[in-house]
Amino acid sequence: MNYTLTAEQKLEIYYWMTLTRTFDERMVNLYRQGRGLGGAFSQRGHEAISVAVGYALEPEDIVAPMHRDLGTYMLRGTTPRRVFANLLGRETGITRGRDANLHGAGDMSLGIIGFISHLPLSLPVALGAAMSFRYRNEPRVALTFCGDGSASAGLFHETVNMAALYNAPYVLILENNQYAYSTPVSKQTRVTDLAERAGGYGIPGVIVDGNDVEAVYAAVKEAIEQARAGGGPSLVETKTMRMLGHAIHDGAEYVPRELLAEWEAKDPVVRFAQKLVESGVTDRDELDEIDHRAAAEIEDAIDYAEASPFPDPATVEEGVYAE
Ligand SMILES: Cc1ncc(C[n+]2csc(CCOP(=O)(O)OP(=O)(O)O)c2C)c(N)n1
Ligand SMILES: [Mg+2]
Fold first, then answer.
1. Residues 6 or more apart from 312 whose CB is under 8 A from it?
2. Which of 43, 152, 208, 246 has the highest count of CB atoms within 10 angstroms of its CB?
3. Who surrounds ion ligand 2 at CB < 5 A?
4. Strand partners of residue 176
């Protein structure tokens, strides 16, 4: 199938990408000013992936995102207000201030399984959702994400094998951002293209430029619709670069500067903006207007979060399922 986007859809995607980028830049600033609270994982470099995936999913599908998939959370309806409130530990956040992070930030009314911190535990949980769709004969897909580091854990292999064996409507996005904390991919495996692993389990493995939003959209849409039609699972390896440290406290001094410079030149947001102008979809003025709209939404989210109350300590046992 040919999954090309209309001019209107491209501008919509640009809006979500600039919203994700602006959210990230403001989040990093806030933490550097001492106004942050929990852990914060930068999204820089991952915007094309998380936005394209969120755009490719249908409302009835289920997604289990990781910590660098903010665009997907937002596209499914998690507002910047709720995410910022979560990061600042407020009652109005997704976890009602229980976790000042993206961990556990699920909302099943939006089809989002909360991110499970223990990597890669989201993989088998999302597979369970996919199998329930299959058993009920529902044309729905479960999609989940996995990092290069997470793909080195045994559970990755067990889950992909089982998904393949049962022909589950399951899509796995492998975000290869070159590092797992301070460990480069070359120190985890002799394999360069992690998508090759799919062949070992008898499913398709596709490699896509993770900084090209249109390419990611086309590859992911194809994988989703194939799974929906009963064609079984696939793995999409999106190659990108984690442009900042693992989390806000990490200066990433161990990452060669030349490698960052190489990827900076391929920045997914800048590149898409240039493409939109060069191909005549829009002009710089309209993109500036979209940037301003996104910036205003993020400022509103920060104001909302900072004005929100912390949870009442008396409610600490609410939502605890074991004692
Ligand atoms: C079982 C387990 N071990 C260690 C950690 C700590 N940890 C959190 S993120 C991370 C690196 C993950 O790397 P990757 O999967 O490549 O994702 P990225 O952070 O690069 O997006 C580690 C080691 C964890 N969350 N779970
Ligand atoms: Mg990684």
1. 91
2. 43
3. 147-149, 177, 180
4. 239
Token couple for 215: 């390419």
pTM of the prediction? 0.98
Every domain of the chain and the residues it spans: 7-308
User: Measured between alpha carbons, how far is 241 from 142 in angstroms, rounded to an integer?
Assistant: 25
Q: Give the Å distance between the CA of 45 and the centre of ligand 2.
A: 11
Task: From 86, 44, 69, 81, select the one nearest 126 (Cα to Cα).
Answer: 69
Q: How far is the CA of 121 from the centre of ligand 2 (A)?
A: 15
Question: What gap in Å lies between CA 64 and CA 144, rounded to an integer?
Answer: 5
Let me know: does 179 contact 172? Beta carbons within 8 Å. no
**Proximal ligand: closest to the CA of 41:** 1
Pick the CATH number of 7-308 from 3.30.300.130, 3.40.50.970, 3.30.70.100, 1.10.10.10: 3.40.50.970
Ligand 1 within 6 A of CB of 182: no
pLDDT exceeds 80 at position 322 = no
Write b or e for each residue in 72-85: b if 16 or more Cβ atoms lie within 10 A of its Cβ, otherwise e.
bbbbbebebbbbbb
* 243: confidence class by pLDDT, cuts 50, 70, 90: very high
Q: Which residue CA neighbors atom 21 of ligand 1 most closely?
A: 147
DSSP code at position 311? P
What ranges make up the beta strands (E) of 36-151? Answer: 62-64, 142-147
Q: Which residues of 33-67 are buried (b: 16+ CB within 10 A; e: fewer)?
A: eeebbbbbbbbbbbbbbbbbbbbbbeeebbbbbbb
| Coil, helix or strand at residue 206 | strand
Q: Choose among 87, 41, 32, 85: nearest CA to 65.
A: 41
Q: What is the mean pLDDT of residues 159-171?
A: 98
